[in-house]
Amino acid sequence: MRYHLLALFISQLTWLVPHAQEKQSPLTWQDIPNWKYIRTNDATPSPDGKWLAYVSGPTQGDLTLTVKNTGNNRQYQYAIGGQITPIRFNEHSSFIAFYQSPDHKTIKANQKSKKPIRKKLHLVSLKDTASTVFNNVQKFDFSNEQGGWIGLRFEPIVPAQKNDTTGRGSDLLLYNLANKQQFNIGSVHDYAFNKNGTLLAYTVDAAGQNGNGVFLLNLTNGLTTLLQNDAATFSKLNWNKEGTAFSLLKSKKDKAYTTPIYTLIGVKNVLATNPEVYSYSGLDEQQITAGYGISENTAPYWSKDLSRIFFGIAKLEKTKAEREKAQDAKVDSLVQKTANLTDSVQARQDSTNVKTANASQKTGVNKKDLEKPDMTIWNWQDKRLQSSQRTQLERDKKFNIMSLWEIGNNKFVSLADSNLKSISLAPNQKIGYGLDFSPYEFTSSLDGQRFADVYLVDIASGTRKLAIEKLYLNASFSSSFSPKSSHILYYSNGDYYVLDVHTLAKTNITKLIPSTFIDKNEDHNVSKPATGTYGWTQDGRFVILKDNYDLWKVAYDGKSHIQLTDDWKDRKLLTTSYNNTYPDDDEIDLAKDQYFTVIDENTKQTGIALLPAKSNKIQVLGLEDAYVSPINKVKHAAAYFFTKQSPTVSPELYMSNDKMLKTPIKLIADSAKQLLSAGSKLISYVSDHGDTLQAVLYLPADYVEGKAYPTITYIYERLTNNKNSYSLPAYPGGGFNRAMYTSNGYAVLMPDIKYKLNDPGMSAVACVVPAVKAAVATGIVDEKNVAIHGHSWGGYQTSFLITQTNIFKAAVAGAPLTNMISMYSLIYWNSGSTNQSIFESSQGRLTTGYWDNWDAYARNSPIFHIKNVQTPLIIMHNDKDGAVDYTQGIEYFNGLRRLNKPVVMLTYNGENHGLAKEVNQKDYAVRMMEYFDHYLKGKEAPDWWSKGIDFMALPKHLEDRAF
Fold this sequence. Notes:
Elements: E1 9-10, E2 36-38, E3 44-45, E4 51-58, E5 63-69, E6 75-81, E7 88-89, E8 95-100, H1 104-113, E9 120-125, E10 131-134, E11 137-142, E12 149-154, E13 170-176, E14 182-193, E15 199-204, E16 213-218, E17 224-229, E18 233-239, E19 246-252, E20 261-268, E21 276-280, E22 292-294, E23 301-302, E24 308-315, H2 320-348, H3 359-363, H4 386-391, H5 393-398, E25 401-406, E26 411-414, E27 420-425, E28 431-436, H6 441-447, E29 451-458, E30 464-472, E31 480-481, E32 487-492, E33 495-500, E34 506-508, E35 533-536, E36 542-546, E37 551-555, E38 561-563, H7 568-571, E39 573-579, E40 594-600, E41 606-611, E42 619-624, E43 627-628, E44 632-633, E45 640-646, E46 649-656, E47 665-668, E48 677-686, E49 692-700, E50 709-714, H8 738-743, E51 747-751, H9 760-777, E52 781-791, H10 793-801, E53 810-814, H11 820-824, E54 827-828, E55 833-834, H12 836-841, H13 854-859, E56 873-876, H14 886-898, E57 903-906, H15 918-937, H16 943-946, H17 956-959
Parallel strand pairs: 50-51, 50-52, 52-53, 53-56, 56-57
Antiparallel strand pairs: 1-48, 2-4, 3-4, 4-5, 5-6, 7-8, 8-9, 9-10, 11-12, 12-13, 13-14, 14-15, 15-16, 16-17, 18-19, 19-20, 20-21, 22-24, 23-24, 24-25, 25-26, 27-28, 28-29, 29-30, 31-32, 32-33, 33-34, 35-36, 36-37, 37-38, 39-40, 40-41, 41-42, 43-45, 44-45, 45-46, 46-47, 48-49, 49-51, 54-55
Helix pairs in contact: 9-10
């Protein structure tokens, strides 16, 4: 007899020894607003690595910005009010700028009364910490590479009454960092420095449109050049990467259209006394497709050779008056034609017939009869459901067709259309590729299996040629042009290919590699899913591919390959990300040191790996029982920043001046004021399907060896890669916060789930139940006091598991689907599409519709096993849920209620799939913990559970206004 249920082994333990610490009071939900922590994700080093700035403070309250010298740890602190601020250093690392907002209480009051939140800007000299403060600043920017200026645009003065000619501009202050001279420019709406910071382009948008235009200021000599004046609005100002040319849009109102009409403006030869200015009309049907105009939804940009400008065009919508005028003209024409026909017929009949008073009475045609009813027609042949079209209406309105204007010959070229909706340009911008979904769009909307034809597009002419037919996109579409624009990398049917854009020859570059590039962990209904690629090398000679464990440098012609990793498959080591430490590089430059984050699949230890410059062998620099973030290298120094965290230690930030990351300096230490968890155990177990899987068991803060604890089992899909993550106390959108439970004496179990097609629910049972039993076998989990919770897909699995097992004492299912048959053809209202594709190619993991797979749908639907439920259950399902239809929760609740099973359903009116309103987040979190405390800790049952309560009454915590 095969023995599935005992743990095979328990890996190393990441924890502190709580015995040595003073006993701490568990966190309460009322403690969360005052929980202080450091926002390490937003910590910003200076370009020379000598300074670090970060924000700290409570979850809800007033914050502090700290500026620290990384060499001597000298630091300066600034009160910045109740909002986090962007942090910016100038290029030379001599100044830092940041906002100071009003205090937290004022911000809340202003938000409630819809008053503006005015901010101050602090400009601090790092040489002597001298600070200059500016009031009512809306936007700020340093002048890029030369770094000699900062531009500050102030909040505009809002007039009592707004109209079409109300100016949108406000004062722009240019402040010289060296001599503190200040220059004010009025009514500026948009501005941008070029790359080297010597030029400032800006637009003026004044009251009454007086003096509106686009200007260029030379910051080296103070000369301002007027490029164009017009009673119009100028926007979307956009410099090219080199800072040698820029483009923008100009718009004017037109009575015939609902939106302004846009004109394209391009400026180049910017250092000349008279820069070259080009304009292209937005309403020229001789050049742009009839009924289209220049789109406002994309910023135009110059080609690299400055011969053309790329921009978007979109359909122009006539005003209601114009549409009615056009409709009236059509009706009048129809009436007249019908009247003429009737008169002709009557003329041949009895001459005594009396002619009717008007033509419309003769024909029965009336303008009102032609008005459209308020209704929707759903047709089985529609490529997109009507609900999808309606939901995506705003997106469709903003859709624009990529086009270009050839300046030399004044030629317009449309590169895309309604089928080929977007074009990815090659680096040389002479060719691009686009995906045509239209031949497969209908079937894709049904089963979710996505295909597309790949076309190459000649940029000069707009002509296309089919390059790849029916490419399967569910497996992967990480295609990309080579740096020399001569080839395209793509994936198909288990291998990577390179397409020659000139000959259309396709080369399988992985067929000679003794490995597979099919993802072993992907268990959706997808054929041969790809493992992934990190893209091209800078010289265009190689691509960097990964199999399930190892990295490969593969020649673009497939004739050679080099394994960069040292048989990581044997060690179960794999990369999780490429660290982009050179943001200015478009591709991976192997002449420079390159970094990757790695994880040990057996232990969940993480670390950093280095591929040294001009080397073909990756070195693992270290693995530890922590989550190590990707490396951030500063621009002008060999200074490397990264964070580490664990279940017992909040994120800490380190810096190393050594590329091997030896002896790093800790710049930000653990900010947690109390221990929230004693660590985590990694448990290995065998599922009922025979697969060896893992689960993470997070220990309660007061853990004592040998004692068993009440445990919450939290499920979704695969969760164990987060073993070493820190949980920050917070009000959760899904109700559950790990830190709050471990702080309050609970263990938390998070198992991995591996799925078999056509058995998603049964797969959850086969994995979760053995995981719980293996966790019980450790002695840490109290077998008699285990609960389960999940949200969305986890909510479905929770609602299903309690129909198959009674090992859980209580359960909470958030937004669960409960009837796969009825859910299959309902609408995913957030997108407007049907759920059918989700079932057949995504999370549902079913292979057909229920009519051909009835047993699988019924077997995995909680509602069909509802009579088996013995576990008390809370369902949280909101009436505006756009992901899992509200009726799913209602159906399960009413079924359990009819069977007199203990169940409560919580509905937060107006909320979507998760909870967005803080008051609702608090309410759900409190109710969930009260419920689990009752069943797992023996505390008194809350009235809303045991007796029922008035509609939307708050639990006692909220009634006491403790929040």
